[in-house]
Amino acid sequence: MSRRDDTDHGLFREDLLYFLVSSLEKRKNDQPVGQDMNTSYRKAFGYRRREKEEEGITGILLRIPIFEGLSKRELAAVIRILHKRSYQPDEIIFRQEEPGMGMYIIESGNVNIISEPTHLLLSQLNDGDFFGEVSLLDETPRSATAIAKSNSSIFGFFQPDLFGLIERDPRLGVKIVLRLARITAARLRRANEQTIAFNVELQEAKGRSPQP
Questions:
Q1: Which range, of 6-20, 107-121, 167-181, averages the lowest pLDDT?
Q2: CB neighbours (10 Å) of residue 106?
Q3: Would the pTM of this model clear 0.85, i.e. be above it?
Q4: Which helix (H) or strand (E) holds 65?
Q5: Do residues 61 and 130 lie in contact, with contact meaning Cβ atoms separated by under 8 Å?
Q6: Residue-wise over 195-207: b if at least 16 C-beta within 10 A, else e?
Q7: 23-45, pLDDT tens digit by residue?
Q8: 3-state secondary structure string, 24-59?
Q9: How far does Cα 98 stand from its chain's mean position?
Q10: What is the pLDDT of residues 76-90, one digit of tens each?
Q11: How large is the angle between the packed helices 47-62 and 72-79, nearest 10 degrees?
């Protein structure tokens, strides 16, 4: 059972307890059982807070190209299979050369992507950024290490969950896979362009250098 399931069951038990206590109190006061209960237990047990959290997650997903343009129903299906975890400063999220199993989405916090063993800083990421998405399609080893640099709240979207989503909702699964393929292709094009530009600069530098 996931942490989210534990939370939901805990809330259900709290709701039931609140309902029983509320019912007894209202009977004492000759008030109709259930009057204003919906508003009361939402305030008491944080349903509004959970709804706001869901809205926040939806906003983050809509800014990520992989999920851009999905309907509310489709976004809700994705949110249900996300895994949320908190990381402490300097905690490793994944290491270079480890098998890749999925992507990560930063709800809040800061993450550094570094190259081992030189600890070369490749990228600094923060709220709303995502990384590791290629591992949703390919289980090749991670090409870099990801480290939380502050207290960070991060969602994981993993390959087995994507495959399960494809089985349950093929249309939605295909949408996500196609977007992943486009992002990967775009990054490959940029990498090729950068490589070509670097080679041109290298050749020009060799041409400018004095001949022995």
A1: 6-20
A2: 22
A3: no
A4: none
A5: no
A6: eeeeeeeeeeeee
A7: 444 444 444 444 443 444 333 33
A8: HHHHHCCCCCCCCHHHHHHHHHCHHHHHHHHHHHHH
A9: 19
A10: 999 999 999 999 999
A11: 110
